[in-house]
Amino acid sequence: MNKAITINDIAKIATVSKTTVSRFLNGKFEGMSEETRLRIQAVVEELDYRPNRQARALKAKYSSVIGITVTDISNPYNSRILKGIMDRLKSTEYRTIILDSDLCKTREHDNIEKLIDEQIDGLIIQPLAESSHDYAEILKTKLPVVQVDRFVEPLVWPAVVSDNFIQSKNLGLRIKDKDYERVIVLTPPMSESSPRKNRYKGLLNALIGGNVEIISITTPEIREIIAKDEKIWAELRNLLQDKKRTAIFAFNGALLYGAVKFLNDNLIAIPGNIGVVGYDDSALGELISPGITSIEQNPVEIGYRAVDILLQQIIEGPQELSGPVPVDSKLNIRKSL
Amino acid sequence: MNKAITINDIAKIATVSKTTVSRFLNGKFEGMSEETRLRIQAVVEELDYRPNRQARALKAKYSSVIGITVTDISNPYNSRILKGIMDRLKSTEYRTIILDSDLCKTREHDNIEKLIDEQIDGLIIQPLAESSHDYAEILKTKLPVVQVDRFVEPLVWPAVVSDNFIQSKNLGLRIKDKDYERVIVLTPPMSESSPRKNRYKGLLNALIGGNVEIISITTPEIREIIAKDEKIWAELRNLLQDKKRTAIFAFNGALLYGAVKFLNDNLIAIPGNIGVVGYDDSALGELISPGITSIEQNPVEIGYRAVDILLQQIIEGPQELSGPVPVDSKLNIRKSL
DNA sequence: CTGTTAGCGCATTCAA
DNA sequence: TTGAATGCGCTAACAG
Description:
Chain A is built from twelve helices and twelve strands.
């Protein structure tokens, strides 16, 4: 950090005013003689000068940083959303600050405040709260926001999410076709997450009026890769006592893997009387015996789209909102159901 | 962003000078009357005042931000390192800026420059280059740095890494015990990564002087979850022609899963004539039939330790260096080898 | 086409 | 025990 060189140094050496250097730095070449431009450029390159971003942000009132809150950064699905975001942003001026809420609403709240303190120009949020009203600290700013993966209602910010309803509906149809008498849904609390709600609705929509029974087991939020909470599996074991022909539908990868493990451990063959299916965050379903039929989302694409929408908002101001932007997911049909 | 309140506002309302407010904010209470302190405190809380971080950083020459570069943020192993880092940092003043090098050295270089521009107080790096000399832009600063997962030599910065040598050596011993005639190592280029080198060395150390042959297949860097590059598997198929009793040792999760998939697809039963083992980034080995014997690292712990060491450096200045700090990994013995 | 001037919000001398 | 003055590095009127 040897006495970083500043705009003043450049100005002095190039024998121009710092205003002119500033103009140069910001690409405002209109009405600047080619000669001075080249002169400044030479000095800048020579000294490998890099403007101080804090100073710029302080003065200019924009920071070129995008804030991001995710529910849990160690979740492989989330980390692929981040990949998409960062990849899309790499060719721009924007930096990101990523904060992990660790599935905790209080922390999410703190994180948002921290990000706002950071004078971010835009926010990408995977919301944890139940309603947009819970985000008063954002609402009272005019900050451009886009939601990813989940969204809160009323829909005041754009949202980019998987096509949960459709895909779960298709799956519901498949379950019906396969003559299951019952489906057991494994999900963390639905009230807190729009995808879960929509997955449930899709399933319901496919099964309504038929004679397939739907039961849900509501689990805690899962942080592990394989859900091992004994209570969940005890409850499942209980339900399975009656030997009904049952499809188990896990709403996330950890529960899906947990279910597979449970069935393995209990030597319950699949797909026999019991079928298993679910959302596969790690995309490893094909390797897990007997081949897990699963829904594979496209988190990288979600990240891409979110950035596009956010930048558009930042540049052109608020846009029309017409419902969440769906990103296709894919049903990988394998053996387990 | 409705006209954010500043230190001036606080000063005015509390009828003190901004100097005093500044002192208050920085906890310099020595020789400040309790009365003014309480008065300022009241106003600050009342207005929910939050100091502008850019201005503070501009003036104070430190930013309270930690920069991080990872090779690939979507890698579940890396995302767990990040989890550890962020988790450890949450109780501190520090923020993080994470940049993804996407397995590309040029991008890593750019990222480091960007981070330095950001006036970071410290850097956590998962290095992609081959030597510390490749990091001239860091070396010429006095920036506190700690390496995670990998390290470059000569060792000029602390490094927190898995106990690669030991664990691979143990594995080598196991391979020898199981009477394999040959081990085929699946790895991306070793020159670029200290863990790979040390895993190889550990294996070698266990096998040297015995009569187990070691062959490596060097693959490209893998970005997918399951390595599907046909060239790799064609080469493996070729080697396997001779029906030698072979242990396949994959140096990362994607290759491990790729190998399992290859063997599945080709109906090669494991563990029979062929055994499989490897580093399991996703920690799903227990679910993959027939149960994959694998090495499970502890990336979260690596993150923790890295933060501890970095903060110590930031606060107390450079510390003695005595080799990389090892973090225990674990050999999960299952069926595949 | 370019420079002068005036801050942005804060921390830090130096005085009082 | 407190304040006035100064400047960090930059951008943006407003002149010229």
